[in-house]
Amino acid sequence: MMTVIDTAPRTAPADATTSPPRAGLPSLAGLSRARLLAALAELGLPEREQRMRAAQLWHWIYLRGVTSFDEMTNVGKGLRARLAERFTLARPEVVVEQVSADGTRKWLLRLPPEIAGDRPHDVEMVYIPESDRGTLCVSSQVGCTLNCSFCHTGTQRLVRNLTAAEIVAQVMVARDRLGDYPGATRATGPGLPTEGDRLLTNIVFMGMGEPLYAYDSVAESIEILADGEGLGIGKRRITVSTSGVVPEIERLGREVGPMLAISLHAVRDELRDELVPINKKYPLKQLLEACRTYPPVSNAKRITFEYVMLKGVNDSPADARALVRLLAGIPAKINLIPFNPWPGTRYECSDWETIEQFSDIVFRAGYSSPVRTPRGRDILAACGQLKSETERLSARERLALRAMAAAE
Ligand code: SF4
What we know:
The chain is α/β, with parallel strands linked by helices. It has helices at 33-42, 47-63, 77-86, 164-178, 215-226, 246-255, 269-275, 284-292, 317-326, 352-364, 385-407; strands at residues 11-12, 93-99, 105-111, 121-130, 133-138, 141-142, 160-161, 202-205, 238-242, 259-263, 303-309, 332-338.
C-alpha cells in the first residue's frame, strides 16, 4: 500500500514487498554461509557442488537483495524449483512504517514464531539519515530485562533473544524499503544521504534489548553483515552499544571486533545504579577498565559514550567535569543525547542552554561531543514506543471486538 515515501509523518501498514513467509517454509534470508551450506545439504546436493551454490545464493540474497529464487539467473531451473519447494526468501512482515518530516524512518516488524506453537513477536528498527551516511538502529531482543529507568523498552518484559537471521533480516528489510540494492529504485525524499552510493551505510545495535545478552546472535549477525561479498557493512561501521555487560565486552572485541558504545548516562555509581541498574552488578570502575582494555580500541577506533541529558538529574557542570575525569586515558567520543520523552516517564529533557554548557565543558577538555539532534520526534522515535503503542491499539481493538460480540 505505501510505497511512495514522502515527508509527512505518518503510520502505515506494510505493502506486498515484505510478504510474510509461506507457512511452514523456512527463509534463507539472513542465514550465515555455514547455515546456507547446511540448507543445501538438506536438499541433497552433492558435497562438491554445495560450496559453489552457497556462494551463488550469498550473492543473490545479500548483494542483489532478490526476493524470489526465479531471479537467480545463474542457478539452474531445476535447483531453483527444488529450493522454492523447501525454502523462501521472505523477510519479516512490516506491520507499521512511519516516515518523519526529517527523513527518519521507523518500522515495526513482525517476526514469525521461532518454534511451533509460539506466537509472532514485534520488534522495532529506526533508520536515521544524514548527508554522508544512513544509520540503521537494530534490535537484538524482543523486550529487555534491564529496566533502565529512562528507557521505554525497559518497561517491556523480555520475551526472547533474536536469532542472527532475524537481526540480519532487519537490515534487509530496510534495504528493501529504501531501494538500496544495485539496480533498485532508490527511495527519495528530504533528509536522505546525498553522498556515497548507498543509503544504508552504518549499523548500531541500539534498538530494543541488550546486545551482549544476545551475544551469539549478535556476533554471528555481524559476520554476515560485514561480509564484503554480501551486505558489505564493514565492522568499523557497525557499533554495538551495551549498558555495561562487562564480562562480554572483552570477548566481543577479541572475537568479533566491531566498534563499541557504552550507555553511560551517569558519572556516579549511586545515580547510575538508578538509571542503568546493571551498574549494581558491574559498577563504573569495572566498566571503564573493560573499555580501557577493549581489544580494538585505539585513537582511530574510539569508544562512544552515550549520555542522555536528563533535566536536573545528570546535567550539571559538575557532572560534565566528572565525566571528563572519568574517561581520562580512554580513546573516547561522547554523544550527548537530548532525552526523547515518552508517555509515563518521570524524566524531562535538559534545557538547550544546559546541554550547550555541558557540551562546552566536554569539548574544552578535548573530546568531540556532538549533541545528537533529536530525530523523528513526530513519529514516536523513542525506542520501544512504537511497539507499545501498537500493542495498546491492538488491545483497544480486541476490547471493541469483544464489546461488539457481546452486543450481538
Ligand atoms: S537502554 Fe537498552 S539495556 Fe536499558 S532497558 Fe533500554 S533496551 Fe534495555
